[in-house]
């Protein structure tokens, strides 16, 4: 398939996902739609959706796939600026890490804790 066809597929996939989210009745359904969309683009073992607690400047786990959410909620406490996820929340920027074992700029604490 040509590169242009991949872009058309990705946009159609995104459009279907947005329509599904707009029709969803609750957050659990929305999170499943989001996880399915991500899975259509990349392979992953675990994905987490966080809510930002602006007053405490922390992230709280609200949904996940590939792990037990109750255990994750008890173990994972991320403050702004802490690790890769905290950095993204604080800076409001995208972060791409090619190899979590070779990066020295940002510790990917969340990943390393589950190996």
TrEMBL record:
At the top level, the lineage of the source is Bacteria
Task: Report what the protein is called.
Answer: GAF domain-containing protein
The protein's matches in InterPro entries, at most eight in alphabetical order, are given as: GAF-like_dom_sf (IPR029016)
Taxonomically, what lineage is the organism? Answer: Bacteria, Bacillati, Bacillota, Tissierellia, Tissierellales
């Amino acid at each position: 398939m040509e590169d242009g066809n991949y872009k058309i597929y990705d946009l159609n996939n995104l459009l279907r996902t947005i329509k599904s989210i707009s029709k969803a009745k609750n957050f659990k359904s929305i999170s499943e739609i989001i996880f399915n969309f991500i899975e259509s683009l990349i392979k992953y073992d675990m994905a987490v959706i966080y809510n930002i607690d602006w007053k405490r400047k922390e992230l709280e786990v609200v949904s996940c796939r590939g792990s037990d959410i109750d255990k994750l909620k008890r173990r994972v406490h991320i403050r702004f600026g802490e690790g890769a996820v905290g950095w993204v929340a604080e800076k409001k920027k995208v972060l791409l890490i090619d190899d979590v074992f070779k990066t020295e700029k940002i510790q990917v604490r969340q990943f390393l804790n589950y190996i």
